[in-house]
Write a structure and sequence with these properties.
- There is one protein chain.
- The chain is elongated and about 100 Å long.
- It is 23% helix and 27% strand.
- Strands 2-3-1-4-5-6 form a 6-stranded mixed beta sheet, sandwiched between helices.
- A hairpin with a 4-residue loop joins strand 18 (370-384) and strand 19.
- It has 4 domains: 38-248, Rossmann fold (3-Layer(aba) Sandwich), CATH 3.40.50.300; 255-334, Elongation Factor Tu (Ef-tu), domain 3 (Beta Barrel); 340-446, Elongation Factor Tu (Ef-tu), domain 3 (Beta Barrel); 472-653, P-loop containing nucleotide triphosphate hydrolases (Rossmann fold).
- It is an alpha/beta fold.
């Protein structure tokens, strides 16, 4: 399956002096530069609604096909026994499609009129090909949804309207086709308009237009029809030529994903890519993400020549005033207009693969030119696209759409899809097959969605037991120890350095006379939790038990140091809920996954990648980074000694290791 689902490739330019039509059955290889004279549109409808015939009529009547193409489809029509020319064959690009009389993939075509250039994505109408519509419509400026005048608004009509709304296609044109079969009835047309409008009112559709047509006879396709004098609107082609697309594109937020760094000689250093949105001119201040380094644009090169400005869709090379280390996957933006950054993203997810979504599986996420490892850490629900109802779900099957939270190994720099489709979209790739398995539209950072109240986490309790209070209170023990009790919860990937930092911290606290108690992930599995595996349920039980032991040690005035991968935020919230406010410190030991794999102190990553260890965090099981930790330390940037100094300073700042008599309490 082609990877460029939401991220376009390019389709060769046609000669300016003549119209040209090109058929492709995969994603197009080269697209003309984006501008006001180019319209991308997609077609969708139920089986036999006439999508391919409409496009064929559009090309035929606008004289956008060559004589040899016309001759070829004429011969093909005769072989099939058709009396006339079957114009649908212009877009049915595969021999199998022609033999079966159906369209089974996305056919891309390019043509032009004196007023505008067009790229068409003809997508199948079958319910099982929702993924193809997502592919074809993901970059469209306009969607043509065909409705059969005889059948009216059907389930697939609603499905296509929902998908067009989900993909934020700015303009929707409902072409009510086969009007010739209902005697060009105005009442039939108006009834369909009324029904479709009622459904569309539930969706987020910006611009909705209706045109009655007959693709077979050519009514209102290129030329207005005398058969429907009651219709006073424009023809379909006229609408396509004049609909405004500039207003629907993001021309404000400059986003330039770097495809490659160019260094042909020692005197030149440039950065090549395509402007995803916005515009830029020489002399403007820019910032490079993720490094945060700043500079100014020295020059813009387009096709080897200097340019005074680059806008959305332009393929350019930028040179900067300063020497900055920039590579593929970095993003250049305006210094004072930054995208959002997050490693947990709330998104709409359309599943494109035959194999269903696996929550415990690691996928490769492609966002603009950046690739990062990712997991579907939460599936909130599946959307029934026929009824728009939310349905509880534990997975997504082929063509299903759901609301999910994606956790990534490294932060993504994005804009919400609703304001920037280029930086608000992504695809998921199965790293074992290199196939695209899902397309996603980012709504926002996930921490804005989820606010879990730790106090609300239920605490299991056995029957017929009574809690025995100690005769020596925690406060008395803290006074004797000279420090407060607390739980320091170190979380992070295997190999991040949790245990290294924790051991050094324990030594420093011991040297200061502090009473410590350390709980290590491996150690508790030798005895207390030796009966547990590594499934999500067993991981949850592992953390629950540890949290209870940590609470008991805390009640004895100890500083409890816990080092656990603890990959799920909900489990860490449960541990937090066992402690009073201010006595639980979540410390995220952050480290790049590739660094963890290179360290691999126990050889676990290598074994997991060979398939010898199932459900291993970072390879075949997800890790949810903390949403709001008390402290973030980066072991691939800072030394353990420096990190321990930071932790000690934080404990002192909070008054946990600095006792002051104030009525027997720590302040």
């Amino acid at each position: 399956m082609h990877h460029a689902i939401l991220h376009e490739e390019r389709l060769p330019h046609a000669p300016a002096a003549q119209a040209q039509a090109v058929t492709e059955t995969a994603a197009p290889q080269t697209l003309p530069a984006v501008g006001g004279d180019l319209l991308r549109f997609t077609t969708a409808g139920s089986v036999d609604d006439g999508k391919s015939t409409l496009i064929g009529r559009l090309l035929y009547d606008s004289k956008a096909i060559f004589e040899d193409q016309l001759e070829a489809i004429t011969l093909a029509s005769r072989r099939r026994g058709d009396e006339g020319v079957d114009l649908a064959l212009l877009t049915d690009g595969l021999r199998a499609e022609r033999e079966q009389g159906i369209t089974i993939d996305v056919a891309y075509r390019y043509f032009a009129t004196p007023k505008r250039k067009f790229i068409i994505a003809d997508t199948p109408g079958h319910i099982q090909y929702t993924r193809n519509m997502v592919t074809g419509a993901s970059t469209a400026d306009l969607a043509i949804i065909l409705v059969d005048a005889e059948k009216g608004v059907v389930t697939q009509s609603r499905r296509h309207a929902f998908l067009a709304s989900l993909l934020q296609i700015p303009h929707i044109l409902v072409a009510i086709n086969k009007m010739d079969l209902v005697d060009y009835s105005r009442s039939v047309y108006e009834a369909i308009v009324q029904e479709f409008t009622a459904f569309a009112s539930k969706l987020s559709i910006r611009d909705l237009t209706y045109i009655p047509i007959s693709a077979l006879r050519g009514d209102n396709v290129v030329h207005t029809s005398a058969a429907m004098p009651w219709y006073q609107g424009s023809s379909l082609l006229h609408h396509l030529e004049h609909v405004s697309v500039a207003g629907s594109r993001n021309l404000i937020d400059f986003r330039f994903p770097v495809q490659m760094a160019l260094r042909p000689n020692r005197e030149f250093r440039g950065f090549a890519g395509q402007v995803a949105s916005g515009s830029i001119t020489p002399g403007e201040e820019i910032a490079v993400l993720p490094s945060g380094r700043t500079s100014r644009v020295r020059s813009i090169l387009a096709a080897g020549d200097a340019a005074e400005e680059a806008i959305q869709g332009d393929s350019i090379v930028l040179t900067l005033e300063d020497e900055i280390d920039i590579s593929r996957g970095d993003m250049i933006v305006r210094r004072r207009n930054l995208p959002q950054a997050a490693d947990r993203l709330e998104c709409a997810l359309c599943w494109l693969a035959e194999e269903p979504l696996k929550r415990e599986r690691a996928y490769l996420l492609q966002h603009t030119t950046r690739h990062v490892q990712a997991y579907v850490s939460k599936l909130a629900y599946r959307i029934d696209v026929d009824t728009l109802h939310r349905v509880p779900a534990t997975t997504l099957q082929l063509n299903e759409i759901g609301r999910a939270v994606i956790s990534t190994a490294q932060p993504l720099y994005f804009d919400p899809y609703v304001i920037n489709r280029a930086t608000g979209s992504f695809i998921l790739i199965d790293p074992s097959t290199n196939n695209t398995v899902a397309a996603g539209m980012i709504r926002r950072a996930a921490q804005e969605l989820e606010e879990v109240a730790p106090q609300a986490v239920a605490r299991p309790r056995a029957a017929n037991v009574v809690w025995e209070e100690s005769t020596i209170s925690r406060e008395r023990r803290e006074a004797q120890h000279g420090h407060a009790g607390a739980v320091l919860w170190f979380t992070g990937l295997s190999g991040a350095g949790k245990s290294t930092v924790a051991r050094l911290l324990e030594e420093r606290l011991y040297a200061r006379g502090c009473h410590t108690f350390r709980l290590d992930g491996d150690n508790v599995r030798h005895g207390l939790n030796g009966d547990l595996g590594f499934s999500a349920a067993d991981r949850q039980e592992n953390i629950r038990r540890v949290a209870e032991v940590a609470r008991l040690a805390f009640d004895h005035g100890q500083i409890v140091i816990c080092t656990f991968i603890s990959p799920y935020q909900a489990d860490r919230n449960l541990a937090r809920s066992r402690l009073p406010e201010g006595r639980f410190l979540e410390i995220w030991v952050k480290c790049d996954l590739d660094v963890c794999k290179r360290r691999d102190p126990k050889g676990l990553y290598a074994r997991a990648e060979r398939g010898e260890i199932a459900e291993f965090t970072g390879v075949s099981a997800p890790y949810e980074p903390p949403a709001a930790p008390e402290l973030v330390v980066e072991t691939d940037v800072e030394s353990p000694e420096a990190i321990v100094e930071r932790i000690l300073a934080e404990l002192e700042r909070r008054g946990l290791i600095s006792y002051a008599a104030a009525g027997g309490a720590f302040i």
